[in-house]
Amino acid sequence: MTAPIQELRPGRTDGHEPAVRLDAVSKVYGRELLALDQVALSVDRGEFVCLLGASGCGKSTLLNLVAGLDRPTAGEIDTGDARIAMMFQEPALFPWLTVSGNIELALRVTSSGKNTTKKERRARATELLEIVHLGGFGDKRPHELSGGMRQRVALARALAQEADVLLMDEPFGALDAMTRDLLHDELERIWRERELSVLFVTHNVREAVRLGDRVVLLSSRPGKVIEDFPVTLPRPRRTDSAEVAELASTITDRLRQEVLRHAKPATQPAAGAGIEK
Amino acid sequence: MISAIVLVLAIWELVVLSGWRPEYVLPGPVAVLADLWNRLGEPEFYEALGVTMRRAITGFAIAVLVGLVVGAAVSRVRPLRAALGSLITGLQTMPSIAWFPLAILFFKLSESAILFVVVLGAAPSIANGLIAGVDYTPPILLRAGHILGLRRLALYRHVILPASLPSFLSGLKQGWAFAWRSLMAGELLVIIAHQASIGEQLDNARELSDSPGLLATMIVILVIGIVVDMCFGAADNALRRRWGLDQRVG
Fold first, then answer.
1. What is the pTM of this model?
2. According to CATH, what is the number of the domain A2-82+164-267?
């Protein structure tokens, strides 16, 4: 069952309708702070899309909109009947529950888990923890685990939701490089096995190239899609490989232009041209 | 702890020795502790203690119930919050002894009058603890709950209520302190015939100019207050350890 799907990768999937589609989505905060401006973006089924941009470019805003945590001011977001899970930069585990309890809660809420017994959920949580290589940690409390382990729990919890779409908001941003590398491998494996559609936000260019089928570049203030780089390098990739570094530097140059375009008015305040009303 | 007790006893003895008050008014620690020891051997003491603790527990339990219901309602329902939010805080600052004249009008010199004031003393703190806990639920946990598909009551039950537990616990602790104070005030003001209690023993000791007995009873009141407070402290510590709140910054 998995073989034909792997053949389809890493290219983009054919004419199916996408898992996530954003059409001319804008978000205005307050009266006139334009966070997102007419963003059009789609994530195909089973596709891994990395959203890259400098801080404050509205990446997180965009994810929140897709997750339904916030509403767009204009435009349309279509996620069809996809089930959506999300991971944050913080693990956001519930400290009053054990590791297993956190996952069991997620299982309990999903439609297929509603009629399960506590025992079944417990067994399922144990399985999920093994998938993220945390077998035997079910009875620990979240604070007893390291940062990387907590993010694994958060990943297991997202998997418990049996989601089709996984939104990730800089989930590995707070981790050290080694732990991050390991988690990249695991995320890639799980993404393949589960045929997830992933929208992954990061400001780390190499991370984006390491993981994505596509890297979508977002401008700052307002957030707008400025470029869409397909990544055709064979998987699994290594963050420190020459190919990844090469593409990353191309993207970085493009990103730098974008950042400088915004930095200029700040260094010459007298010009006043960069201040949007 | 022990050094603190020794220090207090030493200062006390020094004040007595200084002759600031004659010894039949201010007896030394030895006389008082001897009196306390005698009391601890008498069944009347335990009868009085039983009555007082029964009132304390009943009153506190009712206050917890009232505090929970009011706190939950106020934290959930916006118009209620606008109407009652500051009133609850206001009630918290109201000295509970000021309620007694009204309570006695309502309930005569009865058990109910005491309980009424104990509940009014403790419930606002408990409600406020819950409200603060609900208000300060970390937004990231709310978002996580939302992503899991928890809405409204389910979100309240699985995320907001457990997240507010530490704040609720400190509300309970403060509520207990108010309940205990109100109860002592009540037992001094509302003396019910043939009903021994710690407060009544205090009043008796004053009437009979039994200074050692008076001070011994005060020590009992102090010790009960401290012991219960320590129980709440232990519960709070256990919760913090379990949740790993000690290690968290900010």
1. 0.80
2. 3.40.50.300
